[in-house]
Amino acid sequence: MHRTSTCSLAVALAFLFVAPMAAQQFGGPLAVSGDQLLVGEAGNQTLSGIVYVFEGSDGAWSEIDQIRVTDVDRAPDGFGRSISADGTTLLAGAPIEGAAYLFERGASGVWGEPTRLTGPADSEFGAAVALTDRFVIVSAPAEASGAVYVYDRSSPQSPRRLGAPADAEGTFGSSLATDGVHLIVGAARPRAAAGTVHTYTLDGLEPLGRLSTDDLPDRTAYGSALAVSDGVAYVGASGFDARVGAVFVFELGDEGWTAAPPLRPIVAARNTQFGASIAFG
């Protein structure tokens, strides 16, 4: 059952369409909220971003709404460059503006007015986001060596700040993932070089170690995509093996993380970039 629903969604995504004159960076980040599919379009250097809302019916997807920060024309904000959904809540980053927006979906299916969160100036706050039923997580990779802010949804006025560890070899906070118990933070490096990936408990932000694999060559983009579920972490490396790509798997046990066999594409063709995006359905 799980395999069938996942394949159906993948096929449906190929048919999502927005007007080509309006679409700028459409289809990068994706999230699911109930029966709605949310697709980010961060715009470009001249347009404000949009999150498109689609619903599926009888095997077809149709656009039913567009989520914007405001109906008023304004400077580029990067809104929709990162999105995460949990139930009827949507978190969308706007890193050019240095903000993240929290939306709630009402019983009618309509998304309400957002709550705005902001970070330090010029920090790219909102570059990566993650969401649980209790926490809002937002990265600020351009703040010093990078930082991650964790907000308790019951008291968002006082976020906890997680700074880059000493062994981070890239821009800490370039990617995020959580399963509600563990927090995984990527530290990407320029030109798709292999970065580092760091793990923590979500509740106390206690370090759980670094996810490492031996002898990664340059340009693997290791850590640019992350996912975690039930103590199993998945690290995308879309540039691995001449851009064929791979997903490296780690399992958390009593003595820390241990590597499991990586996931590889069934057809290992150059430039497949397997692992550029990872998600659970």
Helix content: under 10%
- One letter per element, helices H and strands E, the order comes to HEEEEEEEEEEEEEEEEEEHEE
Give the number of DSSP strands: 20
Strand content: over 45%
Distance between the termini: 11 Å
Largest sheet: 4 strands, antiparallel
State the main characteristics.
disordered N terminus, mainly beta, four-stranded antiparallel sheet, 281 residues, 6% helix, single chain
Describe the structure.
With 281 residues, the protein is mainly beta. The chain is built from two helices and 20 strands. The protein has a four-stranded antiparallel β-sheet with strand order 1-2-3-4, with no helix packed on it. The chain has a four-stranded antiparallel β-sheet with strand order 5-6-7-8, with no helix packed on it. The chain has a four-stranded antiparallel β-sheet with strand order 9-10-11-12, with no helix packed on it. The longest helix has 12 residues, at 2-13. The termini are close together.
